């Protein structure tokens, strides 16, 4: 009973108030149509600038592949037996690196956000390592790990870890101290407070960090594959540049963008399932 009371208090305090008098932009079909028009305009602009070989000062579109050339290259890639190997390699690397980063980032973030001793011990070295670009880790990662796969997984982990860590710390610190005090006065212990108050209150910040970390993990993975990979979308993109298959470069970039967008959407959906109170009062999305 105590845990249920604590949970209800936490949910009530973390639930946002419904926006008053704020009109909705439009229905779902209107939003989908608007998104489709936006994408179509971007493709039309791309087609116009490449077919007319527009030269805007320092930006030159004379050698940029057109949408039709990119579409032909994409069709060739779809028929290639290497596509499945490229996708499987990149997805496997992102999955391992991201899952490890999520587990360690959430645990470390909760510890730093809740314990002054953990903050003193862990935060200084992490703050020193955080500004280092993931690309700078590649030579050292190759020296540290014996196989060719582990360095790329490590680079992916590095890119995803710090956004998840910071999101968890911010979410944990944003929990109202009065909720914690109320839970303790109701008889909740340390683990009860963590489970019933801190985690529900910190979940929005954790989800934000997870979504950002997913995007940075793809960015870092592609950089690693360009340097030390043999298969993967990043390797495919870099290989296309070295052999001067320029439409294939654009195809690789678009595939990376679609994979990143899709995986971030999955994280967003999971986050909405974990925080139903954020969207149950008519909040605009």
TrEMBL record:
It is a multi-pass membrane protein. It holds the Pfam family BPD_transp_1. The chain crosses the membrane at residues 95-116, 152-169, 250-271. InterPro entries: MetI-like, MetI-like_sf. It comes from Pandoraea vervacti. It comes from the Bacteria. Its main location: membrane. Belongs to the binding-protein-dependent transport system permease family. It is found in: Cell membrane. The keyword Hydrolase does not apply. SUPFAM superfamilies: MetI-like. The keyword Cell membrane applies. Keywords: Cell membrane, Membrane, Transmembrane, Transmembrane helix, Transport. Residues 87-267 form the ABC transmembrane type-1 domain. This is ABC transporter permease.
């Amino acid at each position: 009973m105590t845990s249920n009371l604590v949970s209800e208090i936490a949910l009530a305090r973390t639930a946002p108030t419904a926006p008053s008098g704020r009109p909705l932009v439009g229905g779902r079909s209107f939003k989908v149509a608007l998104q489709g028009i936006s994408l179509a305009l971007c493709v039309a602009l791309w087609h116009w600038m490449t077919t007319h070989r527009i030269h805007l000062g320092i930006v030159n579109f004379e050698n940029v592949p057109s949408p039709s050339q990119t579409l032909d290259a994409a069709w060739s890639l779809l028929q290639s037996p290497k596509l499945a190997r490229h996708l499987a390699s990149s997805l496997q690397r992102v999955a391992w690196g991201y899952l490890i980063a999520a587990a360690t980032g959430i645990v470390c973030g909760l510890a730093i956000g809740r314990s002054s001793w953990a903050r003193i011990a862990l935060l200084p070295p992490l703050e020193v390592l955080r500004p280092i670009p993931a690309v700078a880790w590649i030579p050292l990662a190759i020296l540290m790990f014996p196989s060719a796969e582990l360095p790329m997984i490590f680079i992916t982990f590095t890119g995803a870890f710090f956004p998840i860590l910071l999101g968890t710390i911010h979410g944990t610190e944003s929990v109202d101290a009065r909720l914690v005090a109320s839970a303790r006065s109701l008889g909740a212990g340390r683990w009860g407070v963590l489970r019933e108050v801190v985690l529900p209150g910190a979940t929005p910040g954790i989800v934000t960090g997870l979504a950002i970390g997913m995007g940075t993990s793809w960015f870092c993975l592609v950089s690693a594959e360009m340097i030390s990979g043999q298969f993967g979308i990043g390797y495919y993109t870099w290989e296309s540049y070295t052999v001067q298959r320029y439409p294939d470069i654009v195809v690789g970039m678009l595939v990376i963008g679609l994979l990143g967008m899709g995986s971030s959407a999955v994280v967003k959906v999971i986050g909405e399932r974990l925080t139903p109170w954020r969207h149950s009062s008519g909040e605009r999305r």
